[in-house]
């Protein structure tokens, strides 16, 4: 065989696939699953990020995300007919079409929810006495027109407004409609007439011709200006806080010029609603650029060239995009760590599969080289042989990923699946080319205990050690948020695991040699023979050890991230609620309520507290929350929750007049430890002395508080206003039923669920969960490949030993003990490596973005912590799989008998 005949590969491929169909199907399954996972990851990430961006826009609401352009009323120096023409629908539509064209991609405007019209700068006061006046103040009206009113509302009663003839500023009467909410609040009916005071003319009569129901009240058409659909009760900023009604009257579009004869100061407006379905997180930079150009860049200049120089643009979309960008920048490094960890393990398993196949066919390939096969020709044939299996499998995995996750960029998925396919196809030929560079009739022994590492390997390991050390140091100094684009930092946990694997590979032969001597002095041959067999393992068996350690480290790291997220949410919910549930009221609670709550199922403890927000120490102007508690029940509560625990006797009311108090650090710093007077809102006063300082207390969530024995307070101040409930399964529905309307109920479990604020957060959790499961799965697969590689050799050994008198029980023990050294080393090493990796990298990881909602919580930063379950479960799983495979192999060999294994000349 030579390079001239490399193209004739069909007979070779067909022959090899028929000779080992099981190996071909196993490789195809491995490639398909790995390609599916690799292709699904970028699409899943895109899906979660897009959903997070759209969720952020939805939570912000159209009032913030819409782009609103407004102009002042037409210039008073213009002729009256020109001023009126500027407010007519044709002129507004022309400018609307031009303004829409200014918005640059990737920001896309939704024409169905966008609108234009005329709205007032001032809201006229109407004198009609039949409109409700809560505090005697007359109502005000918001006179506006909006395009396509018929397409966005259903007429519940009456008809839409219209005009007869051309409307001018002197038109005496026009028509309008109102929404059902406005009609109910302002007592408006079809046929009602509202009189708007005129300027230089008689009052303008506005006749109501219809009552509307919005078709999509939450859409941008109605919610950009919520006043159009829902009236508001305006509170004046005076000590008496008087109120008046403000409601919108929706005029016909042609009726806008009539507003020029009133004090409304009408001006045109255009509201552009972004199409949230087209928002993609990958376009975040482009979206920010497009919004910035409209706010203060060339886009605004172009808009003003189409309208007037006084046109103003306002939007909160830039703030929404910036907030989402901060959340994503905190989450992305963590998902990158998960991707690099699982990806590294998958690549190691693919390379290991190719390496084990090359070892299994070592004799065959050496014979071909000895008979004249060129290295290039042999490599090409092996590549073609593997590609015939890997390429269809990779295509199948890619198709499955595309069908499972239809959203996201396809190019990234195709590139990931292609990389997996190429790696799987090249693993066998590259390993064979490295092994058979030199033609040899008989290769030297490559036992793991006899082969010494080469200088090249030593240099490579030292280089990797330096790179890993630099990555870990960078992560410890700067954290993940400051290096989101630094892929080296994302690789740090993997590099630490790889270094530990290389160290254990060096230690493994030393341990075997040290254990072999004492084992040889034991009675029986099983122990000594098992260690001898483990030492005779081919040096290529160190690759499974590398895969196992990397997988275990990644699984431990991912599990610790999930545990840290869960702990942070639990702690934040506990600090926010103070117990498993709480009942709060602004007035003293009913006297029978505590007993009703105690009798509810699942309630174990109850602490009655009185909270006074307006307690003023030393007759000062600053108020400090004063909490009156029963020291016994409250100390028990703090002991159970672990929040500000203290001893009951330290807070008991003494016989004297000074109350001992527990204070926050800021209050203790401000008032010291000497007694001081605290005045309460009921005109009573108490003298307190700070004897305990705690960072937090369950009754209040703020940074300032004083806690005293309520037995020393006045009767009014001592009456409970809150109940803090502890229990295993406290039912929020039962508590609300017991409290009725006397108190509000907050449940810790409900508060915890609130911290999953964005699909981006939940998506990051799912990705990390998938990474942990995938890492564990690849670890088990690496172990299975390693054990199955030596299965024929072990079967032949058992058959020969049975002819010498070895029993089946001894055979099982032999196989189990032979597989234990490598599995035990991997399990123990993986556990220690995972623990060390988390301890080293924990200072650089802040899980707050993943754990908590955008609403700030009192937990502070959520740090990475060691999760014993994530360390122990994968390691125990490795040991169980190793023992299980050995037992099954011994059982299966006993059922098959020894005749086939003892035949001379059979290939092993």
Write the layout of secondary structure elements.
Elements: H1 10-19, H2 21-60, H3 62-65, E1 67-70, H4 80-86, H5 89-102, E2 115-120, E3 140-146, E4 153-158, E5 173-179, H6 180-186, E6 193-196, E7 204-214, H7 220-223, E8 232-235, E9 243-251, E10 266-272, H8 284-296, H9 298-306, E11 312-314, H10 317-360, H11 362-370, H12 375-404, H13 410-435, H14 455-478, H15 487-490, H16 492-520, H17 526-535, H18 542-577, E12 581-584, H19 593-598, E13 603-617, E14 624-629, H20 631-641, H21 648-651, E15 658-663, H22 665-671, E16 676-679, E17 685-693, E18 706-709, H23 715-718, E19 722-727, H24 732-739, E20 744-747, H25 748-754, H26 759-789, H27 791-803, H28 808-841, H29 848-851, H30 868-896
Parallel strand pairs: 3-9, 5-7, 14-18, 15-17
Antiparallel strand pairs: 1-10, 1-11, 2-3, 2-10, 4-7, 5-9, 6-7, 8-9, 12-19, 12-20, 13-14, 13-16, 13-19, 15-18, 16-17
How is this structure best described in words?
Helices cover 53% and strands 14% of the residues. It is α+β, with helices and mostly antiparallel strands and 908 residues long. Strands 1, 2, 3, 4, 5, 6, 7, 8, 9, 10 and 11 form an eleven-stranded mixed beta sheet that branches. Strand 16 and strand 17 (685-693) form a beta hairpin. The protein is flat and about 120 Å long.
């Amino acid at each position: 065989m030579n390079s001239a005949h490399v193209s004739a590969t069909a007979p070779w491929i067909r022959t090899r696939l028929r000779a080992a169909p099981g190996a071909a199907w196993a490789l195809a399954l491995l490639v398909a699953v790995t390609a599916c996972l690799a292709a699904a990851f970028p699409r899943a990430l895109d899906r979660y990020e897009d959903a997070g961006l759209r969720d952020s826009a939805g939570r912000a609401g159209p009032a913030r995300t819409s782009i609103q352009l407004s102009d002042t009323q037409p210039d008073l120096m213009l002729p009256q007919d020109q001023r009126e023409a500027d407010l007519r629908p044709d002129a507004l539509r022309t400018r609307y079409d031009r303004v829409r064209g200014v918005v640059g991609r990737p920001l896309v405007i939704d024409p169905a929810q966008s609108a234009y019209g005329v709205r007032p700068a001032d809201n006229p006061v109407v004198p009609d006495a039949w409109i409700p006046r809560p505090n005697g103040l007359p109502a005000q009206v918001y006179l506006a027109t909006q395009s396509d009113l018929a397409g966005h509302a259903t007429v519940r009663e009456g008809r839409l407004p219209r005009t007869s003839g051309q409307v001018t500023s002197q038109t005496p009467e026009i028509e309008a409609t109102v929404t059902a909410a406005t009609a109910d609040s302002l007592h408006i009916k079809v046929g009602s007439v509202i009189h708007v005071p005129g300027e230089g003319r008689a009052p303008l009569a506005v006749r109501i011709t219809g009552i509307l129901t919005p078709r999509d009240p939450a859409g941008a058409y109605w919610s950009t200006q919520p006043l159009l659909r829902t009236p508001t009760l305006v509170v004046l900023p005076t000590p008496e806080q008087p109120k008046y009604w403000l409601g919108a009257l929706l005029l016909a579009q042609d009726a806008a010029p009539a507003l020029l004869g009133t004090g409304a100061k009408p001006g045109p407006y255009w509201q552009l609603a972004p199409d949230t379905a087209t928002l993609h997180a990958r376009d975040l930079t482009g979206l920010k650029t497009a919004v910035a150009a409209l706010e203060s860049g060339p886009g605004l200049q172009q808009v003003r060239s189409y309208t007037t120089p006084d046109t103003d643009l306002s939007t909160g979309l830039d703030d929404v995009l910036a907030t989402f960008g901060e959340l994503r920048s905190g989450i992305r490094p963590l998902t990158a760590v998960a991707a690099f960890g699982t990806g590294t393990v998958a690549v190691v398993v693919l390379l290991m599969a190719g390496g084990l196949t090359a070892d299994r066919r070592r004799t065959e390939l050496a014979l071909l080289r000895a008979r004249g096969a060129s290295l290039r020709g042999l490599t090409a044939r092996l590549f073609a042989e593997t590609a015939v299996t890997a390429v269809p499998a990779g295509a199948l995995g890619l198709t499955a990923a595309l069908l499972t996750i239809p959203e996201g960029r396809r190019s990234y998925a195709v590139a990931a699946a292609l990389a997996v396919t190429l790696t799987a196809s090249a693993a066998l030929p590259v390993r064979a080319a490295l092994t058979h560079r030199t033609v040899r009739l008989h290769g030297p022994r490559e036992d793991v205990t006899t082969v010494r590492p080469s200088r090249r390997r030593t240099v490579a390991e030292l280089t990797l050690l330096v790179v890993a050390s630099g990555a870990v140091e960078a992560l410890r100094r700067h954290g993940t948020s400051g290096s989101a684009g630094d892929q080296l930092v994302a690789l740090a946990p993997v590099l630490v695991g790889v270094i530990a694997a290389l160290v254990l590979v060096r230690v493994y032969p030393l341990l075997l040699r040290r254990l072999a001597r004492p084992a040889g002095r034991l009675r029986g041959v099983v122990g000594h023979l098992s260690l001898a067999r483990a030492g005779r393992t081919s040096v290529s068996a160190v690759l499974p050890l590398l895969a196992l350690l990397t997988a275990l480290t990644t699984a431990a790291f991912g599990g610790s991230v999930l545990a840290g997220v869960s702990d942070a949410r639990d702690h934040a919910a506990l600090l926010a609620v103070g117990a498993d549930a709480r009942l709060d009221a602004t007035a003293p609670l009913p006297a029978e309520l505590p007993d009703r709550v105690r009798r509810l199922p699942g309630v174990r403890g109850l602490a009655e507290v009185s909270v006074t927000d307006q307690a003023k120490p030393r007759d000062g102007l600053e108020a400090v929350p004063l909490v009156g508690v029963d020291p016994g029940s409250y100390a028990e509560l703090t002991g159970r929750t672990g929040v500000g625990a203290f001893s009951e006797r330290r807070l008991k009311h003494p016989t004297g007049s000074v109350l001992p108090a527990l204070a926050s650090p800021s209050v203790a710093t401000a008032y010291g430890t000497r007694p001081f007077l605290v005045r309460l809102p009921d005109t009573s006063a108490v003298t307190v002395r700070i004897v305990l300082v705690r960072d937090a207390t369950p009754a209040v969530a703020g940074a300032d508080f004083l806690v005293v024995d309520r037995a020393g307070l006045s009767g009014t101040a001592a009456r409970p206003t809150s109940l803090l409930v502890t229990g295993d399964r406290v039912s929020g529905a039962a508590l609300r039923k017991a409290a009725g309307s006397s108190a509000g109920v907050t449940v810790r479990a409900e508060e915890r669920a609130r911290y999953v604020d964005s699909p981006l957060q939940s998506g990051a959790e799912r990705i990390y969960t998938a990474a942990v499961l995938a890492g564990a799965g690849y670890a088990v697969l690496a172990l299975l490949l390693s054990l199955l590689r030596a299965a024929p050799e072990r079967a032949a050994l058992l058959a020969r030993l049975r002819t010498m008198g070895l029993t089946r029980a001894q055979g099982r023990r032999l196989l189990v003990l032979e597989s234990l050294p490598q599995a035990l080393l991997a399990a123990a090493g993986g556990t220690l490596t995972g623990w060390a990796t988390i301890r080293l990298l924990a200072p650089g990881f802040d899980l707050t973005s993943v754990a908590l909602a955008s609403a700030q919580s009192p937990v502070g930063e959520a740090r990475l912590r060691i999760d014993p379950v994530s360390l122990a479960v994968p390691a125990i799983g490795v040991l169980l799989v190793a023992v299980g495979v050995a037992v099954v192999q011994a059982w299966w060999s006993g059922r098959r008998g020894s005749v086939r294994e003892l035949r001379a000349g059979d290939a092993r």
